[in-house]
Structure formats: structure tokens, C-alpha cells
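[Meeting: bench + compute handoff]

Bench side (C.D.) handed over the final construct sequence. Compute side (W.E.) agreed to return the predicted structure before the next meeting so the bench team could plan truncations. Sequence as handed over:
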Amino acid sequence: MQGPYHSSQSSSRQIPTDVSFLVSYEPLKPNYQKQAIRKGRGDSGFWAPPNRKIAYHRDTARAKLFRWRGGRVTELAHDPSSRYSFTRHSVATVFTQYPDTDHLLAVDFDAEEKNVVEDPGGWKVLGFRHQPQPGTEKIYSYVDVWGTEQQMAAPGSPHWVPQLLPSIYDYDPSQPAAATTWRPSTAGLIGHLPILFALPAFSAPPERLAQVLTGHLQPNRWVPHQFCHGRIAERGMVVTVYLDPANLKLSSKVILDQLQDGYWGAFYGA
């Protein structure tokens, strides 16, 4: 279904300046008194987050709330002692597996609200869906927890690989499918909005979150920073996207779905 902003030429258009939503970051820490340290599936032996909702501590004192509007981010005041009551659009819980691997593990729900062990597949490594753009040679990479491809469909821009997305996810020309289905174009990254916002959070230490989001996320692009990465051991967070209560006409589910599907170009472009 076409929404109010849909256009067949959307890949060449910038994000409308009046579309907005809210996004919250809530650090999540494992509680090993509730569930013992887990190792990954198979023979990897990598650390894995708890798979039971009681085995977490939500660090509400360090929670942050932001407004995204037209590609620009501002920090909002909030009461850290209370949970957010806005209308939820989407959510993801994301953990780093560093230093075992540069992969990020995620589920598309709040891991303190639902047992991961009850979700098909449990914790998932981020994956991609390759989405060709009609009438162009571009292929967008849609990142989420259900993507079946392990690497992006085309080389990522040096502006955001490996700062936003670790190099382990970058286009690999040695893959057998590369010669027939992948095109060597830096088309950009789209995807599940909470994951698109988790990536910059992990790009820098936790104390730099507000500085990174407000200063380096711009319309359709990422501006590199000079901080060390924030993919530290056992770091996790719940990232939630809400409809903007101050802008409900232009902050609907339809519009936000269009945004994450790339109707206005890549969220992180060349």
C-alpha cells in the first residue's frame, strides 16, 4: 500500500524535514544471579546474553530520550524513574559479543518483557535483506534480525564502515553469489529503525551517546567521529522507537515504515 509520501522516485529524494519520531535508549545488563553465564550455540563458545527476562537489570538512571526530525536528532528531558508511555512503533534489544566476535546479537522485542528462549531462533546475529532499487543499479541492504544474508549487498561507505557497522558485515566479493546477484555499488543501509539507531550507540563509548547522535547523524548520511568504538564486552540496550505525540500527523506507523523501507533513500548513504 502506498502511503502519503510514497514516490516511485523516492531513492533520489531526501528525507522530509517534517517527519519525526522519538527514540529511547535503555541500557540492559545481565543479572547472573538469575541466570548463569551462557555460551553460544554449537561449537563457537562465544558469550551470549541471558535468554530469560528475569535475568536482566535495566539501568533506568542512564536511559536517554531523543527526537529524530527530518534526519536531525535532539535530546529530550525525561524522568529516569518512570517508563515511557508513548505509542510504540518498534523495538529491539541488541548486545555486543565483543571481544569474542564483532557480531551484534539482537531480537525484535524488549528482552526484559519477553523470554528470548520462547522466540524462534533465540538471539540472532544481525542479517540483511538485499533490496534492488527499480530503475537503478543500486541495491539497498535492509538490516534486521530476520535477514538471511550475512553481508551487505554492496560495499558500505567508508563514512560508516566500520564505524557504524563492523567490517565483518561488509560486502564480500568472494561470495559465490556476488558475480550474479550483487552489484558493487555503495547504495546505502536501510532497515529496522531500532537497529539503525543501535548502530551509532555502539559506535562510541556509552557516555558519548548524546554527543554522537546529535552531532553525527544527519539526513540520509552519517558523519564520522573520532571516538573509540563502544562495542565493549557484554554491553546491551533496549532501543525503542515511538510515534511523536507532538507530530502525530507526520509520525504514523505508515510513514515510519516507509522511512525504514528506504522510500526516501538510504538512511545511511554514501
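W.E. noted at the follow-up: The first helix runs from residue 178 to 181. C.D. will use this when planning the next construct.
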